[in-house]
Write a structure and sequence with these properties.
This protein is α+β, with helices and mostly antiparallel strands. Helices cover 31% and strands 41% of the residues. The longest helix has 22 residues.
Amino acid sequence: MKKITISICFLASCCFFSVIVAQNCKPDLSKLDKITKQQHDEWFSFIYTPGFLNNALNNSNVKIGASILREGDVNKISVILIRTQEKQNTANVQQYKAVKGTIFYFGLKDGSPLKLVADEVNNFTDVVGEIGVHRITLYSYIKDEDLKTMLDQLTTKTIEAVRVILENDITIEQSVKEKDGVKMMSKYSCFFNFAQEKGYIK
């Protein structure tokens, strides 16, 4: 009787989790470009946020996010670096620069690292009050025929580290906490469910 009760509770919790995932599977960003008429559906999450001590010691802040999206007929996987620094040091912020061909890696738990090459980059710098903000986004394009392989990698193994090699041999590398890796994996799962429903996965 006890075993049956445990089994029922386990199944109920699994069903509850499935419902939660389904409810939260909407894109974080969904829009139609008014000029190109291309649909943009994107799932995003931060995978590393420095603690207060990091900010105090380095006088800087590099927050790392990741996303996966479909824009028109192109699939993209990205890493986003957001660095903040006091305004008088904004010249140093400019040293962080990505170009096409920049390499970035996701270290996967119990698996080989996923190496990606940027097909598109966006370097954006602004000053907000006394703080300089530099945002770098690197996009790697994924062909429809490669989605199946990517699905197997990103929905069964969590990201546990990220490395980005910028210009001038500047390397940004951080470990990813398990809870953040799991959250990002759920975002990837949502995208691949979407891609399967749309028939993009061959």
